[in-house]
Amino acid sequence: MRVARFITASAMAGLTLLTVIPASAGTAGVRVSGIRFVAHFDFSLGQTPENIALEPDGSADVTFSEAAQVAQVSSDGQVRLLAQLPDPAQASCPISAGTPGVHAITSGIVRDSNGTLYTLLCAGTADLQGIWRLDPSGPVRVAALPASGFPNGMALDESHGFIYVTDSILGTVWRVSLADGSVIPWAVGPQLAPDGFFGANGLKLHDGAVWVTNTEQGTLLRISIEPDGTAGPIQTVATGLPGIDDIAFTGSRPCAPVLAAISPSSQLVLIQPDGGEQVLLTAADGLSNPSAVAVRGDSFYVTSAAYFTRTDPNLLQGSAVHQLEESSRVASHDLAGKIGWQAKF
Protein backbone atom coordinates (compact mmCIF):
# COMPACT_ATOMS: atom_id res chain seq x y z
CA MET A 1 0.00 0.00 0.00
CA ARG A 2 1.30 3.42 -1.05
CA VAL A 3 4.90 2.99 0.06
CA ALA A 4 6.42 5.68 -2.16
CA ARG A 5 6.90 8.29 0.54
CA PHE A 6 8.39 5.88 3.03
CA ILE A 7 11.08 3.98 1.13
CA THR A 8 14.49 5.52 1.63
CA ALA A 9 16.53 6.74 -1.30
CA SER A 10 19.14 4.07 -0.70
CA ALA A 11 16.54 1.33 -0.77
CA MET A 12 15.10 2.69 -3.98
CA ALA A 13 18.55 2.72 -5.53
CA GLY A 14 18.99 -0.93 -4.55
CA LEU A 15 15.67 -1.88 -6.08
CA THR A 16 16.68 -0.52 -9.46
CA LEU A 17 19.58 -2.98 -9.52
CA LEU A 18 17.52 -6.15 -9.23
CA THR A 19 18.73 -8.46 -11.97
CA VAL A 20 18.46 -12.11 -12.97
CA ILE A 21 21.66 -14.11 -12.48
CA PRO A 22 22.42 -17.85 -12.62
CA ALA A 23 21.21 -19.85 -9.64
CA SER A 24 22.88 -22.60 -7.71
CA ALA A 25 22.42 -26.10 -9.03
CA GLY A 26 19.10 -27.67 -8.24
CA THR A 27 17.06 -24.47 -8.26
CA ALA A 28 14.32 -24.80 -10.83
CA GLY A 29 13.61 -21.76 -12.97
CA VAL A 30 10.17 -20.94 -14.26
CA ARG A 31 8.46 -18.85 -16.88
CA VAL A 32 4.93 -17.53 -17.15
CA SER A 33 2.61 -17.49 -20.13
CA GLY A 34 -0.80 -16.20 -21.15
CA ILE A 35 -0.15 -12.73 -19.76
CA ARG A 36 -3.05 -10.37 -20.44
CA PHE A 37 -4.54 -7.17 -19.12
CA VAL A 38 -7.94 -7.82 -17.58
CA ALA A 39 -8.65 -4.11 -17.08
CA HIS A 40 -7.08 -0.66 -17.02
CA PHE A 41 -8.23 1.89 -14.43
CA ASP A 42 -8.32 5.68 -14.07
CA PHE A 43 -5.70 7.02 -11.67
CA SER A 44 -7.32 10.48 -11.65
CA LEU A 45 -10.47 8.97 -10.13
CA GLY A 46 -8.57 7.27 -7.31
CA GLN A 47 -8.89 3.88 -9.01
CA THR A 48 -5.70 2.54 -7.46
CA PRO A 49 -6.31 -1.22 -7.06
CA GLU A 50 -4.72 -2.02 -3.73
CA ASN A 51 -5.95 -5.52 -2.90
CA ILE A 52 -7.87 -8.37 -4.49
CA ALA A 53 -10.28 -11.20 -3.70
CA LEU A 54 -11.25 -13.70 -6.38
CA GLU A 55 -14.80 -14.80 -7.20
CA PRO A 56 -15.72 -18.34 -8.34
CA ASP A 57 -16.83 -17.08 -11.77
CA GLY A 58 -13.39 -15.67 -12.55
CA SER A 59 -14.15 -12.07 -11.68
CA ALA A 60 -12.08 -10.16 -9.14
CA ASP A 61 -13.11 -7.86 -6.31
CA VAL A 62 -10.61 -5.04 -5.78
CA THR A 63 -10.24 -2.13 -3.41
CA PHE A 64 -9.69 1.26 -5.05
CA SER A 65 -7.66 2.65 -2.18
CA GLU A 66 -7.65 6.38 -2.93
CA ALA A 67 -11.34 6.44 -3.82
CA ALA A 68 -12.31 4.44 -0.70
CA GLN A 69 -14.25 2.08 -2.95
CA VAL A 70 -14.68 -1.62 -3.65
CA ALA A 71 -15.31 -2.69 -7.24
CA GLN A 72 -15.79 -5.94 -9.12
CA VAL A 73 -13.92 -6.60 -12.37
CA SER A 74 -15.41 -9.25 -14.64
CA SER A 75 -13.20 -11.66 -16.56
CA ASP A 76 -13.78 -9.56 -19.68
CA GLY A 77 -12.74 -6.33 -17.95
CA GLN A 78 -16.07 -4.76 -17.06
CA VAL A 79 -15.83 -2.71 -13.85
CA ARG A 80 -18.81 -2.47 -11.48
CA LEU A 81 -18.81 -0.43 -8.28
CA LEU A 82 -19.82 -2.59 -5.31
CA ALA A 83 -19.48 -0.12 -2.46
CA GLN A 84 -18.44 3.39 -1.56
CA LEU A 85 -16.95 3.45 1.92
CA PRO A 86 -17.32 6.56 4.10
CA ASP A 87 -14.89 9.25 2.96
CA PRO A 88 -15.72 12.49 4.80
CA ALA A 89 -13.45 15.47 4.36
CA GLN A 90 -12.64 15.54 8.07
CA ALA A 91 -11.30 11.98 7.89
CA SER A 92 -7.68 11.42 6.93
CA CYS A 93 -5.85 8.12 7.09
CA PRO A 94 -2.49 8.68 8.83
CA ILE A 95 -0.70 7.17 5.84
CA SER A 96 -2.28 9.70 3.45
CA ALA A 97 -1.74 12.82 5.51
CA GLY A 98 -0.50 15.58 3.23
CA THR A 99 -1.75 13.89 0.05
CA PRO A 100 -4.14 16.31 -1.67
CA GLY A 101 -7.62 14.91 -2.19
CA VAL A 102 -7.04 11.69 -0.24
CA HIS A 103 -9.01 11.29 3.00
CA ALA A 104 -10.02 7.72 3.78
CA ILE A 105 -8.37 4.67 2.20
CA THR A 106 -9.58 1.13 1.53
CA SER A 107 -6.85 -1.50 1.72
CA GLY A 108 -7.28 -5.24 2.33
CA ILE A 109 -10.24 -7.31 1.16
CA VAL A 110 -11.36 -10.91 1.81
CA ARG A 111 -14.32 -13.03 0.71
CA ASP A 112 -15.94 -15.76 2.79
CA SER A 113 -17.43 -19.00 1.46
CA ASN A 114 -20.90 -17.43 1.30
CA GLY A 115 -19.67 -14.60 -0.89
CA THR A 116 -19.66 -11.93 1.80
CA LEU A 117 -16.89 -9.36 1.38
CA TYR A 118 -14.96 -7.66 4.17
CA THR A 119 -12.65 -4.72 3.63
CA LEU A 120 -10.43 -2.43 5.68
CA LEU A 121 -10.98 1.31 5.95
CA CYS A 122 -8.31 3.67 7.21
CA ALA A 123 -9.89 7.02 8.04
CA GLY A 124 -7.90 8.24 11.03
CA THR A 125 -11.08 8.60 13.11
CA ALA A 126 -12.37 6.34 15.87
CA ASP A 127 -15.87 6.14 14.39
CA LEU A 128 -14.76 4.88 10.95
CA GLN A 129 -11.44 3.04 11.21
CA GLY A 130 -11.69 -0.74 11.06
CA ILE A 131 -13.22 -3.73 9.26
CA TRP A 132 -16.34 -3.20 7.16
CA ARG A 133 -18.71 -5.85 5.84
CA LEU A 134 -20.37 -5.20 2.49
CA ASP A 135 -24.06 -5.95 3.03
CA PRO A 136 -26.77 -5.64 0.35
CA SER A 137 -28.02 -2.52 2.14
CA GLY A 138 -24.55 -0.98 2.25
CA PRO A 139 -21.24 -1.19 4.14
CA VAL A 140 -21.43 -1.90 7.88
CA ARG A 141 -18.51 -1.61 10.28
CA VAL A 142 -18.08 -4.84 12.24
CA ALA A 143 -14.87 -4.09 14.16
CA ALA A 144 -13.02 -0.96 15.20
CA LEU A 145 -9.25 -0.64 14.89
CA PRO A 146 -6.93 2.04 16.35
CA ALA A 147 -7.34 5.33 14.50
CA SER A 148 -3.62 6.08 14.92
CA GLY A 149 -2.59 3.07 12.83
CA PHE A 150 -2.92 1.90 9.24
CA PRO A 151 -4.79 -1.41 8.81
CA ASN A 152 -3.41 -2.85 5.60
CA GLY A 153 -3.32 -6.58 4.79
CA MET A 154 -5.99 -9.00 5.93
CA ALA A 155 -6.68 -12.74 5.87
CA LEU A 156 -9.76 -14.72 6.84
CA ASP A 157 -9.69 -17.80 9.08
CA GLU A 158 -13.29 -18.75 8.45
CA SER A 159 -13.19 -22.05 10.32
CA HIS A 160 -12.35 -20.26 13.59
CA GLY A 161 -14.22 -17.02 12.91
CA PHE A 162 -11.21 -14.70 12.85
CA ILE A 163 -9.78 -12.08 10.56
CA TYR A 164 -6.08 -11.25 10.87
CA VAL A 165 -4.99 -7.70 10.01
CA THR A 166 -1.55 -6.11 9.66
CA ASP A 167 -0.99 -2.58 10.90
CA SER A 168 1.79 -0.94 8.91
CA ILE A 169 2.31 1.97 11.32
CA LEU A 170 1.84 0.24 14.67
CA GLY A 171 3.80 -2.88 13.65
CA THR A 172 1.12 -5.26 14.85
CA VAL A 173 -0.92 -8.20 13.63
CA TRP A 174 -4.45 -7.81 15.01
CA ARG A 175 -6.79 -10.77 15.43
CA VAL A 176 -10.45 -9.83 15.11
CA SER A 177 -13.41 -11.99 16.14
CA LEU A 178 -16.22 -11.95 13.60
CA ALA A 179 -18.61 -13.12 16.34
CA ASP A 180 -18.38 -9.99 18.47
CA GLY A 181 -15.89 -7.63 16.79
CA SER A 182 -13.36 -7.95 19.62
CA VAL A 183 -9.76 -7.14 18.72
CA ILE A 184 -6.51 -8.38 20.28
CA PRO A 185 -2.88 -7.59 19.37
CA TRP A 186 -2.11 -11.14 18.27
CA ALA A 187 1.55 -10.58 17.31
CA VAL A 188 3.96 -7.73 17.95
CA GLY A 189 7.72 -7.46 17.72
CA PRO A 190 10.59 -5.63 16.04
CA GLN A 191 10.29 -7.85 12.96
CA LEU A 192 6.86 -6.31 12.30
CA ALA A 193 7.84 -2.74 13.08
CA PRO A 194 8.56 -0.06 10.49
CA ASP A 195 12.11 0.92 9.70
CA GLY A 196 11.02 4.52 9.84
CA PHE A 197 7.30 4.56 9.14
CA PHE A 198 5.95 1.60 7.11
CA GLY A 199 6.29 -1.95 8.41
CA ALA A 200 4.00 -5.01 8.37
CA ASN A 201 2.06 -5.07 5.10
CA GLY A 202 0.97 -8.15 3.12
CA LEU A 203 -0.73 -10.98 4.99
CA LYS A 204 -1.65 -14.56 4.10
CA LEU A 205 -2.61 -17.73 5.99
CA HIS A 206 -0.78 -20.87 4.88
CA ASP A 207 0.01 -24.23 6.45
CA GLY A 208 -0.99 -23.33 10.00
CA ALA A 209 0.79 -20.01 10.05
CA VAL A 210 0.32 -16.31 9.44
CA TRP A 211 2.73 -14.97 6.81
CA VAL A 212 3.55 -11.26 6.80
CA THR A 213 5.72 -8.98 4.70
CA ASN A 214 7.58 -5.99 6.11
CA THR A 215 7.94 -3.40 3.38
CA GLU A 216 10.70 -1.21 4.77
CA GLN A 217 12.69 -4.08 6.28
CA GLY A 218 12.30 -6.05 3.02
CA THR A 219 11.41 -9.30 4.74
CA LEU A 220 8.97 -12.21 4.60
CA LEU A 221 7.92 -13.47 8.03
CA ARG A 222 6.20 -16.62 9.31
CA ILE A 223 4.26 -16.75 12.59
CA SER A 224 2.89 -20.14 13.55
CA ILE A 225 -0.61 -20.40 15.00
CA GLU A 226 -0.16 -22.41 18.19
CA PRO A 227 -2.69 -25.08 19.27
CA ASP A 228 -4.26 -22.63 21.74
CA GLY A 229 -4.57 -19.98 19.02
CA THR A 230 -1.76 -17.77 20.26
CA ALA A 231 1.11 -16.56 18.08
CA GLY A 232 4.31 -18.56 17.94
CA PRO A 233 7.77 -17.03 17.44
CA ILE A 234 8.18 -14.62 14.54
CA GLN A 235 10.51 -16.26 12.01
CA THR A 236 12.29 -14.26 9.33
CA VAL A 237 12.00 -16.48 6.27
CA ALA A 238 13.32 -14.27 3.44
CA THR A 239 15.33 -11.06 3.37
CA GLY A 240 16.63 -8.54 0.86
CA LEU A 241 13.26 -7.54 -0.62
CA PRO A 242 12.84 -3.81 0.14
CA GLY A 243 9.51 -2.57 -1.13
CA ILE A 244 7.80 -5.98 -0.85
CA ASP A 245 4.04 -5.60 -0.65
CA ASP A 246 1.61 -8.50 -1.01
CA ILE A 247 2.30 -12.23 -1.49
CA ALA A 248 0.46 -15.33 -2.64
CA PHE A 249 1.32 -19.00 -2.35
CA THR A 250 1.35 -20.98 -5.58
CA GLY A 251 -0.21 -24.07 -4.03
CA SER A 252 -1.49 -25.65 -0.82
CA ARG A 253 1.50 -27.81 0.01
CA PRO A 254 3.67 -26.62 2.92
CA CYS A 255 6.67 -25.66 0.80
CA ALA A 256 4.79 -24.02 -2.06
CA PRO A 257 6.77 -21.20 -3.69
CA VAL A 258 5.66 -17.63 -3.01
CA LEU A 259 4.78 -14.92 -5.52
CA ALA A 260 5.77 -11.49 -4.19
CA ALA A 261 4.83 -8.05 -5.49
CA ILE A 262 7.76 -5.63 -5.29
CA SER A 263 6.02 -2.33 -5.67
CA PRO A 264 8.63 0.41 -6.24
CA SER A 265 10.56 -1.55 -8.89
CA SER A 266 7.42 -2.95 -10.58
CA GLN A 267 8.43 -6.59 -10.31
CA LEU A 268 6.73 -9.89 -9.57
CA VAL A 269 9.23 -12.23 -7.91
CA LEU A 270 8.96 -15.98 -7.32
CA ILE A 271 10.59 -17.05 -4.05
CA GLN A 272 11.51 -20.73 -3.84
CA PRO A 273 11.91 -22.52 -0.49
CA ASP A 274 15.32 -23.86 -1.61
CA GLY A 275 16.79 -20.36 -1.73
CA GLY A 276 16.14 -19.52 -5.38
CA GLU A 277 14.37 -16.34 -6.42
CA GLN A 278 13.42 -15.22 -9.90
CA VAL A 279 11.90 -12.12 -11.43
CA LEU A 280 8.87 -13.31 -13.41
CA LEU A 281 7.37 -10.01 -14.57
CA THR A 282 8.52 -6.40 -14.79
CA ALA A 283 7.28 -3.05 -16.03
CA ALA A 284 7.97 -4.30 -19.55
CA ASP A 285 5.14 -6.81 -19.02
CA GLY A 286 2.75 -4.09 -17.84
CA LEU A 287 3.36 -3.93 -14.09
CA SER A 288 2.99 -0.45 -12.65
CA ASN A 289 3.86 -0.67 -8.94
CA PRO A 290 2.16 -4.00 -8.18
CA SER A 291 0.32 -4.02 -4.87
CA ALA A 292 -1.38 -7.43 -4.57
CA VAL A 293 -1.21 -11.00 -5.87
CA ALA A 294 -3.83 -13.74 -5.93
CA VAL A 295 -3.66 -17.33 -7.20
CA ARG A 296 -6.36 -19.73 -8.33
CA GLY A 297 -5.41 -23.02 -9.95
CA ASP A 298 -2.76 -22.35 -12.57
CA SER A 299 -3.73 -18.69 -12.92
CA PHE A 300 -2.45 -15.71 -11.00
CA TYR A 301 -3.67 -12.12 -10.82
CA VAL A 302 -1.65 -8.99 -10.05
CA THR A 303 -3.03 -5.55 -9.27
CA SER A 304 -0.88 -2.54 -10.20
CA ALA A 305 -1.80 0.56 -8.20
CA ALA A 306 0.64 2.95 -9.95
CA TYR A 307 1.47 4.72 -6.70
CA PHE A 308 4.94 5.71 -7.98
CA THR A 309 4.45 5.86 -11.72
CA ARG A 310 0.99 7.46 -11.57
CA THR A 311 0.47 5.74 -14.91
CA ASP A 312 -1.81 2.85 -15.93
CA PRO A 313 -3.18 1.25 -12.78
CA ASN A 314 -4.35 -2.16 -13.97
CA LEU A 315 -5.28 -5.76 -13.31
CA LEU A 316 -3.10 -8.34 -15.03
CA GLN A 317 -3.57 -12.10 -15.31
CA GLY A 318 -1.15 -14.90 -16.12
CA SER A 319 -2.36 -18.33 -17.10
CA ALA A 320 0.50 -20.65 -16.16
CA VAL A 321 3.88 -21.11 -14.54
CA HIS A 322 6.25 -23.50 -16.30
CA GLN A 323 9.47 -25.14 -15.19
CA LEU A 324 12.55 -24.38 -17.27
CA GLU A 325 15.78 -26.27 -17.65
CA GLU A 326 17.76 -23.09 -17.16
CA SER A 327 17.34 -21.88 -13.60
CA SER A 328 17.74 -18.32 -12.44
CA ARG A 329 17.50 -16.30 -9.31
CA VAL A 330 17.13 -12.68 -8.38
CA ALA A 331 19.79 -10.73 -6.54
CA SER A 332 20.39 -7.14 -5.52
CA HIS A 333 23.92 -5.86 -5.91
CA ASP A 334 23.33 -3.28 -3.18
CA LEU A 335 22.22 -5.95 -0.73
CA ALA A 336 25.29 -8.18 -0.66
CA GLY A 337 24.17 -9.88 -3.85
CA LYS A 338 21.77 -12.10 -1.96
CA ILE A 339 18.12 -12.68 -1.19
CA GLY A 340 17.91 -15.81 0.92
CA TRP A 341 15.68 -17.97 3.05
CA GLN A 342 16.56 -17.56 6.72
CA ALA A 343 14.34 -20.30 8.18
CA LYS A 344 12.76 -23.49 6.96
CA PHE A 345 9.03 -23.86 6.51
What's the helix-strand series? HEEEEEEEEEEEEEEEEEEEEEEEEEEEE
Cα-atom Rg, whole angstroms? 18 Å
Largest sheet descriptor: 4 strands, antiparallel
Number of helices: 1
| Cα separation of the termini | 26 Å
Question: How much strand content do the residues show?
Answer: over 45%
Mean pLDDT: 85
- In CATH terms, what is the architecture? 6 Propeller
Taking strands numbered 1, 2, ... along the chain, how are they ordered across the largest sheet?
3-26-25-24
List the main descriptive attributes of the protein structure presented here.
345 residues; 4-stranded antiparallel β-sheet; single chain; mainly beta; 1 helix; disordered N terminus; Neuraminidase
Description:
- This protein is mainly beta and 345 residues long.
- The chain has one domain: 6 Propeller (Neuraminidase).
- Helix content is 2%, strand content 48%.
- The protein contains one helix and 28 strands.
- The strands form eight sheets. It has a four-stranded antiparallel β-sheet, with no helix packed on it.
- The protein starts with 8 loop residues before the first helix and ends in a 13-residue tail after the last strand.
What's the layout of helices and strands?
Blueprint (H helix, E strand, L loop, with lengths): L8 H7 L2 E5 L6 E5 L2 E5 L8 E6 L5 E5 L4 E5 L5 E6 L20 E7 L5 E6 L7 E6 L2 E7 L6 E7 L4 E6 L4 E6 L5 E6 L11 E7 L2 E6 L4 E7 L5 E8 L5 E6 L8 E5 L4 E5 L5 E5 L8 E7 L2 E6 L9 E5 L1 E5 L3 E5 L13
Antiparallel strand pairs: 1-28, 2-27, 3-26, 4-5, 5-6, 6-7, 8-9, 9-10, 10-11, 12-13, 13-14, 14-15, 16-17, 17-18, 18-19, 20-21, 21-22, 22-23, 24-25, 25-26
